[in-house]
Design a protein that fits this description.
With 130 residues, the protein is mainly alpha-helical. The chain has one domain. It is 84% helix and 0% strand. The chain contains 3 helices and no strands. It is rod-shaped.
Length: 130
């Protein structure tokens, strides 16, 4: 029968504390990695949206100017003021509609870092239960 070596007092507590510390460090590390990934994804998504939006606005503006000139020239001899007034009201209406969509999108968008916040909430709940 092998004899057990005597343990130094507190070595069990020390190793338990070390394991708890390592577990906490691992949890914090994984949460920070998740937050970093979400931040990178959000940054990429916003950059892509801005670039696509600017390109779309450029070509929509170019098309609107071309269409405006075409319609004004088409009605130059008969109803040019009516054509200019109609196009002005149309553009203001489209602009107001787009502003309303932007406002709706801003209100309904998901919170950034929602997955990280949810995981941290779960961690907090687990820790408070024990």
């Amino acid at each position: 029968m092998a004899l057990k070596e005597p343990r130094a007092p507190g070595s069990g507590l020390r190793s338990s504390l070390r394991r708890v510390g390592a577990s906490i460090a691992a949890v914090v590390h994984s949460r920070i990695e998740l937050a970093a990934l979400e931040f990178e994804r959000e940054k990429t998504r916003i950059t892509r949206l801005v670039v696509l939006g600017v390109v779309a606005l450029f070509f929509l503006g170019l098309g609107a100017i071309t269409a405006t000139i075409f319609i004004i020239v088409l009605f130059w001899d008969s109803q040019r003021l009516v054509a200019i007034g109609f196009l002005t009201v149309l553009y203001i209406g489209i602009g107001a509609g787009m502003l309303s969509l932007v406002r709706k999108e801003a209100v309904e968008s998901t919170r950034p870092f929602s997955a990280s916040l949810e995981e941290l909430r779960k961690d907090r709940d687990r820790l408070t239960r024990t």
